[in-house]
Fold this protein.
Amino acid sequence: MDHHDEPLLLVLDYPGYRPEARFADLRLDGHGVRTHDLLRRPLPRVTDGSAYAARSLLANPAPAGPVTAIAAYCASAPLAFELARAVAPEGGAAPRLVLVDAEPGTLAPVLDSYRDALAQLGVHPSEEEVRERAAPDRLADDPRGFVDALVDDLERRAADALRALGSGPAEAVESAAHMAGAYADWLSHLVAAHRSRVSPWDGEVLHIDSAGGSGRHFAHGAADVREVRIDCDRKDLLRSEETREAVLSALR
């Protein structure tokens, strides 16, 4: 088989630290599948789903040949729909979507990430303060300003915390800026997912969930939906033989 005749899978798997397995752990390349990871640093810092997909493709162009499917993990799932629209051939069939332990693009992970980032600094804001800073109307009215405000707040608090721990002024500012930059990447990703169009959708969608997965599949209006639950913990879902077989089946 010519290399270009092999199925091509575009992958959305955020590169930040996590204990769970990654798509690379499925080792699909050894089963006749070309995989291309679109989320590589430097990541886009845009807050619109279609723009995020376009920037990702521009920074990491897909290999030649039609895209067979798009796979996305967790909070990246809504972006898979925008990416599929971007690569679907005019008048042709849309790529299949493979969504693994998918989460809808809601405000909840944004709030959780804000709390977690502050907790790492020993700061535990009240729910009222969290809601005030990360208010849904601010996100809807000015998503870029929403992200910038949270990132600036984190950077300021990080610099204060580091100085309190004995860091010099210059060192505190530099370390805080590095931490805030990583947070800006992640928060932009979450907001872009939140602002992605997932419906209407005419393509095929495969949901793969772990045993403890929430199963809260967000409404995307697809007529052709298949669900597979794998009997394993989430941390091992992307290294499970059953998961690999489910993905390969979707690509055949």
User: Anything to note?
Assistant: Helices lie at 49-59, 77-87, 108-119, 127-133, 136-141, 143-164, 169-194, 241-251. Residues 169-194 form the longest helix (26 residues).
